[in-house]
Amino acid sequence: MYRALYRQYRPETFHEVLGQDHIVRILKNQIASGSTSHAYLFCGTRGTGKTTTARLLAKGLNCLSDGERPCGECANCKAIKEGSFLDVIEIDAASNNGVDDVRELRESVKYPPSTGRMKVYIIDEVHMLSTEAFNALLKTLEEPPEYVTFILATTEAHKLPATVMSRCMRLDFKRVPEAVLISGMADICGRIGIDVSEDALRIIAANADGSVRDGLSILDQCISGRDRRVEAEDVLEFLGASGDGDFIELTDMVRKKRTEEAILFLNGILSDGKDVRQFMRDWINHYRNLLMVKFMRNPETVVNMSAENIERIRRQASVLDLEDINRGILELSSMADEARWSTQPRILLELAIVRLCMAAGEIRELTEVEFTEPVIPAPAGQNAPVQERVPAAPTAAEPAAPAKAAADTPAAAPARPKTAPESAGAFDCEDIWNKVFEDGEGEKGSIYIIRNSGQLTSIDENTFNVTANNEFTRDLVEKNRKLIEHLVGKHTGGHKTMKVSLAGNGKKEVPAEEIAAAASDILGIKVDVK
Ligand SMILES: Nc1ncnc2c1ncn2[C@@H]1O[C@H](COP(=O)(O)OP(=O)(O)OP(=O)(O)O)[C@@H](O)[C@H]1O
Ligand SMILES: [Mg+2]
Ligand SMILES: [Zn+2]
Questions:
Q1: Cα(144)–Cα(148) distance, rounded to whole angstroms?
Q2: C or N terminus of the chain, fewer CB within 10 Å?
Q3: Does residue 257's CB lie within 6 angstroms of at least one atom of ligand 1?
Q4: What is the spatial distance between Cα 411 and Cα 421, in angstroms, rounded to a whole number?
Q5: What's CA 97's distance to the chain center, in Å?
Q6: In this predicted structure, what is the pLDDT of residue 512?
Q7: Which ligand 1 atom is the nearest neighbour of the CA of 154?
């Protein structure tokens, strides 16, 4: 029977564990010196070795070898591997989460090990226990018999009661660095005699996102059915074939608020046998790609895709607002999170689609329609003067917003603000800049970036100048033109046209890290830049 790679290659000794050196070191020492704790909490990202390490610790505690333990060879190590060792008890808290299950466990704790040295209870996904079950467990955790070790494992330590945490030695499993993943996978490929190019492994590792299980699972699917060397193109083809086109289409339906069409489309994909949870993760990844492509000059380095796919994503990113992407990531992540334990993940996904469709474009409408000022037609040849440095002394005849703004503006403009005009030149630029953002606060996340890395440098009768510290900010300023013009107008008594310039020589490159930090800031998610 065929077994998935990640089942086939579960480390049998500490030596084979990828990454997690900090944890391996501690456990090896404790086993060697007989100073293990009576309760452990293993937490961290999925697929990084929690269950694997729990079994290694169970083996180490019962291993018969005189050398390094676990040896992986002795009768006890083998029995534990097979799952036939009576004194290592694995409990899946996701399906045994009631107080009765814990009572049963407490009963069995009373009996000393039958064949081994230590009775080891591995409680996986421990955050799934009910409150009563936790309380029942607490008593046992407080004073377990000498011959018992508890290993609790979870991806969500924050859901555990403090009382439980405080009784365990906590070990945090980290995402495995790509380089470590690559060499680990290369090792496995060598053992099973399959030739996979370094580039192919690199792409797989990048897509595994720190999870060894995910890495092996992608590798598995890329090598299946191939008798020749696996190249980068094969991996890209596999990753692409798992539905990039579908995500582009679905995201587009959401953007256009076509709820029914989107639900039917999803129905079609799922009836092809695609896993709902995997689909959610892949869709989130699509939104991440949109984010990268929108904000990075060379997204190729972080988006592992063929140039063609990147181009398609770029086209979609250009019609989506940061808010749309932000919302997609947040909504889907929270659904994916809940779906892990739900028996009805599909309903959650459908609900997410409905919510995304309802929310699509709302903020855009607010800023683009509500804050529209009367549009003065731009003279020919003067369209979108965004890239140019503006002259120091603009004239009253300057065009208003660029022509694109006019084209985007379907609704009639509201009346101008009625504030009494102050005399030009008497304005305190800094003061007005601050007021603008106090007003704009809460409207859009990007506002914070503009406030911090842009300045209002001068205000004239019909125009005002904004200097952006970098190109990224300049683009944001430009995107929020109507809002900013409206707000500056409000505080200076009458509409003024904004001119945007770049600080310095105007050619300043924004470091990718700065963009990532800014994006992380407003999105509340981590954006990695290599
Ligand atoms: N650190 C690692 N080193 C080597 N292989 C690993 C590692 N982590 C995971 N694997 C591989 O992935 C498979 C699953 O790992 P494991 O069950 O230990 O993950 P986990 O952290 O318990 O995940 P989950 O949170 O989903 O329960 C293993 O069989 C092994 O092949
Ligand atoms: Mg596990
Ligand atoms: Zn052994």
A1: 6
A2: N
A3: no
A4: 26
A5: 29
A6: 58
A7: 25
For residue 69, pLDDT over 90 is answered with yes
Angle of CA points 266, 325, 449, to nearest 5°? 175
Q: Which amino acid is at 107?
A: E
Whether residue 374 lies inside any domain: the answer is no
Domain count for the chain = 4
For residue 108, the model assigns a pLDDT of: 92
Structure confidence by residue, pLDDT tens digits, 148-180: 999 999 998 988 999 999 999 999 999 898 899
Longest dimension (CA), the chain: 93
Q: CB-based contacts of 14: which residues, under 8 Å, 6+ apart?
A: 24, 27, 28, 56, 60, 68, 70
Question: What is the pLDDT confidence band of residue 447, given thresholds at 50, 70 and 90?
Answer: low
Q: What is the mean pLDDT of the chain?
A: 80
| pLDDT(519) > 70 | no
Q: Which whole number is the average pLDDT over 44-65?
A: 96
Q: Is the pTM of this model over 0.70?
A: no
Please give the structure tokens belonging to residue 417: 């603000």
d(CA 46, CA 221): 19
**Residue tagged 């309802």 (tokens):** 358
Query: Peptide bond before 70: cis, by omega within 30 degrees of 0?
Result: yes
Using most ligand atoms within 8 A of CB, pick from 21, 51, 155 the residue to mutate for ligand 1. 51
Residues 167, 38 contacting (CB under 8 angstroms): no
Could you tell me where the DSSP H helices lie in 360-445? 362-365, 403-408, 429-440
402 and 313 both lie in a single domain: no
Number of Cβ atoms within 10 Å of the Cβ of 288 = 20
Q: Is the CB of 11 under 6 A from ligand 1?
A: yes
Q: Which residue has the CA at smallest separation from atom 25 of ligand 1?
A: 46
Tokens encoding 304: 């592992």
Same domain for 440 and 340: no
Q: In this model, does residue 202 exceed pLDDT 90?
A: no
pLDDT of residue 482: 84
Residue reference for tokens 């007005």: 432
Question: What is the CB neighbour count within 10 angstroms for residue 225?
Answer: 6
Measured over the CA atoms of residue 203, residue 206, residue 212 and residue 218, the dihedral's sign is negative
The answer to the question of residue 527 being in a domain is no
Residues 468 and 455: their CA atoms lie apart, in Å, by 7
Residues 323 and 397 in one domain: no
Q: Ligand 2 centroid vs 44 CA: distance in angstroms?
A: 10
Contact 328 CB / ligand 1 (< 6 Å): no
Residue 296 confidence class, pLDDT cut points 50, 70, 90: confident
User: Residues in the chain, how many?
Assistant: 530
Domain, as residue range, for 318: 244-360
Q: Is residue 522 within 8 Å of residue 449, measured between CB atoms?
A: yes
Do 139 and 27 fall into the same domain? yes
Q: What sign for the dihedral angle of Cα 269, 271, 274, 280?
A: positive
Domain shared by 312 and 436, yes or no:
no
Q: Which ligand sits nearest to residue 44's alpha carbon?
A: 1
Instruction: Give the pLDDT band of residue 295 (cuts 50, 70, 90).
Output: confident
